[in-house]
Amino acid sequence: MTDTEPIFTAVSSNAHHLYTLLQCIGFASRATVQITPDGIRFSAEEMRVIQGLAFLDKALFTSYTFNPPAAPNQGTTDNNDNDDDTTSDPSTYYPCFVVSLSALLETLKIFGTNDSSTNPNAGRASSVQPTHPSGPGAFSAPSLLLDRSCTIRYTSEGSPLSITLSETGVKTTCELTTYETEGSEVDIPLQRDAIIMKIIMRSAWLHNAISELAATSPSVLKISASATREPFFALSGTGGSFSESSVEFSVENGGANGPGGDARGSIDEGSRAKKAKLAPTVTETFLVSPPSSMGSRLKQNYKFALIQKAARAMAVANKVSIRGDRQGVLSLQFMIEFDANGAGGVRPLKGGPPPVVTFVDFRFVPLLDDEEGDDLE
C-alpha cells in the first residue's frame, strides 16, 4: 500500500474558502462526497424534501491530484449520469462515500477559519438563522490567517478522509471515517427542459426579503411571479402566529414595459442600459412562463423553515438564480466568488487573476395542498 499513489490529494492555501462553502450546506449532519477530476462534490439532504449541493472546484486548490480507481463492479456504478457503454471504463468511475459533515466543519475551523473578520458578509446570516459564536480570541487574530494550508487526502476505497491543517509550524491531522452510500442518494430532480421560472438577482436582495419575512415566524413561503401584471415577483410568509407579511419586487420602468417586457425581449440593449441608469432593477433576468393550467401567474408554496436553511448561502453569495419547473421543484443556485490569491472577501489587485467562481445549489420540494393545511393548522 505504501507504493500505491492515493486516489485523491488536494492542497488548499485557504481553508476558509472550503469552510465557507461547506457551511452553506451545514444543515445536515452527514454529506455524500464524490471525487471527480474537476472538483469535490458534497451533497446534503433532509427527508428528501431539501437538498444542498456544494462543489469545491479544483481551482480552489493550489494542487489537485486525482487517480481514479477501477470500478468495483463493472456496469453497476451508482449515481452516474454516464452512458451505459462507458461504465466499464475505469476513468469514468468516481469514488463516492458518506462522511460526517459536522465533524468536517469542526475540523476546518480548528484554527479559527470561521472568524467573522475574514467574511464581511457573515453578519447577514445571523438575522435569519442562529450561528455558532465566533467572537475574537487567541485563535482568531488576523495574523493567524497567514501561512495556513489544508491538505485533503483519500488513500484508497474505504479508507478515512484525511484532513491536515498546517499553520505557522503547527500541524493537525484528522481522519474522518467514511461510510458506504446506501444507494438512495439520488438528487431531487429538476426538469431543466421544463423550467417555467428563472430569475437572477443579487443574493442580498433575497436574503433581505427572507429576513423581513422571518420576523413574523411564518410556516409557509408563498412565491408568486407573473410576466404580465404586478406584482411581478412577490414572496409572502403565512401560517405564523403573527400577522402575514409580503415582500414585492417591483420594477421602476418609467413606461409600460415591466419585467415581462424584458423577458419577451421587447426592449433593445440601448434602452435597457438607459433604463438601468434611470431606475435600476433588482433582477438581471426575469423569465416567467407558467403553463396554461396556472393562468398568467405562477404560484407555489414551500416550507419556510426549509428555505431558511439556505440562509448561509444567501449571506455569502454574490448572485442567486431562482428556478422552478412544472412539478414545483425550486432551485436556488448561488454564485460565490473568492479571490484567487488572497483571503476571502479581499478583491484581487487590478490586473491580477480573476476571482474563482463557485456554486452552491439548493433544491426544495413544494408543499402539497394538504401539507400546507397542516402547517397553517
UniProtKB/TrEMBL annotation:
It is found in: Nucleus. It holds the Pfam family Rad1. Its main location: nucleus. One of its GO terms (biological process) is DNA repair. InterPro entries: Rad1_Rec1_Rad17. Residues 119-138 are annotated as: Disordered. PANTHER family: CELL CYCLE CHECKPOINT PROTEIN RAD1. This is SsDNA endodeoxyribonuclease.
